Amino acid sequence: MFFLTFLKRRLKSLNLRKLLPPLVAVLVRAWGRSCRRLLVINGEFEARQVAAGRGCVYVTWHQRLFNIYFIHRPRRLSIMISRSRDGDLVAEVARRLGYESVRGSSSRGGSTAMFELVEKLRCRPGLCAGMLGDGPRGPARKLKPGAVRIAQLTGLPLLPMACGARWARFFASWDRFLLPLPFSPLVVIFGDPIWVPASTSTQEFEDIRQQVENRLNELAEQCDACWQS
Question: Which residues pair with 59 in a beta bridge?
Fold first, then answer.
């Protein structure tokens, strides 16, 4: 989201807003083609799910949003995108990159979007959901309940993941958005799958939410540490 806002401000004076989605889509594809070296750690379960045509609920931090493109190009993926002007841009870029989307966030239309996504996942075996655990506005690295709830309502495994780049820029945004530099080697680390019981107490649900939050933070740190050794 921060990356799109950054470009939007640069183009606003030229009144090129309508050209921004195709421009960003072209840039993302070009960036992706330049970053060809990809290290996947603990990806066996995810690979089996995809090969068998089974779905899952991916969850990662908003900071790592840009890197999802490099990982999920072969997957059937539907992502939740906020109802906002920036969200309009993200949704159109996502469409041009081959992803589906439902519109809503924790503050605007979230419940409606969540149940729309749940219905899509139930009706279309093999479809995966992509969730930004702390999006769209944070606080950073604090997991909101949406991803856990979707996994609970669909019975699909929740799959924490993080991506990292050897050469990257961290922006001065609320999430310190990570943008891999062209030609950078990439790494993605998956956590073990988490199945959320269909019936949980409030405390049990909170314990699972906290478990996923802790795991996402560990995975992000592991990704960044890959290039320090």
Answer: 131, 160
